[in-house]
């Protein structure tokens, strides 16, 4: 998937070209090709028009990642509602940029670790307030323990420590949970366990 970065010339990162040597850097959205299908557009957020651009590009068949100078949950929400598949700081390191690209290309959603953790914590209380909606009978006891801990916002390392197992075992149980419950990621797990999806 070809990457295009749309950003004012005074806000650029050399990491973009390091991550994607064939990427094009555009200083204005008018420089985009007429057909954006199949493109991955990384857009520097900065004005109210960015959201309209994102919605238009997504409708035309592009994947879009919003880049920001300061991560903000309310801005992330607006960007994702406009149809973007990702949101992160514009100075993200090369391996993160490449990982974002891989996730977005396969239809995934990317949020930074801090924002994802905030979302998981914000929705974890839904599980506690609505336990009758949780259907974990298809999981083993240990998988249930891992699923509940992860849905409560704990990292693999924290879950391993709490359950006295290795991180590798946590990952194995988590993979089984994702497969059995047909969920894509941690946030989706929270939504499924809360009965919201």
From TrEMBL:
Pfam family name, one: GerE
PROSITE patterns: HTH_LUXR_1, HTH_LUXR_2
InterPro entries: Sig_transdc_resp-reg_C-effctor (IPR016032), Tscrpt_reg_LuxR_C (IPR000792), WalR-like (IPR039420)
UniProt keyword DNA-binding present: yes
Keyword annotations of the record: DNA-binding
All copies of domain HTH luxR-type, residue ranges: 132-197
PANTHER family on file: TWO-COMPONENT RESPONSE REGULATOR
Protein name: HTH luxR-type domain-containing protein
């Amino acid at each position: 998937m070809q990457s295009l970065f749309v950003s004012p010339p005074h806000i650029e990162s050399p990491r973009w070209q390091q991550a994607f040597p064939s990427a094009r850097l555009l200083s204005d959205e008018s420089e985009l090709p007429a057909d954006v299908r199949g493109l991955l557009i990384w857009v520097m957020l900065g004005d109210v028009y960015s959201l309209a651009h994102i919605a238009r590009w997504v409708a035309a068949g592009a994947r879009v990642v919003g880049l920001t100078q300061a991560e903000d949950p309310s801005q992330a929400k607006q960007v994702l509602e406009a149809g973007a598949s990702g949101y992160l700081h514009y100075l993200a390191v090369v391996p993160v940029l490449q990982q974002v690209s891989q996730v977005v290309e396969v239809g995934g959603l990317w949020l930074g670790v801090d924002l994802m953790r905030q979302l998981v914590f914000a929705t974890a209380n839904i599980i506690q307030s609505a336990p009758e909606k949780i259907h974990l009978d298809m999981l083993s006891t240990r998988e249930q323990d891992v699923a509940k801990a992860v849905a409560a916002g704990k990292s693999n390392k924290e879950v391993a420590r709490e359950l006295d197992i290795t991180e590798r075992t946590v990952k194995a149980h988590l993979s089984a949970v994702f497969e059995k419950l047909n969920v894509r990621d941690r946030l989706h797990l929270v939504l499924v366990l809360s009965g919201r999806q």
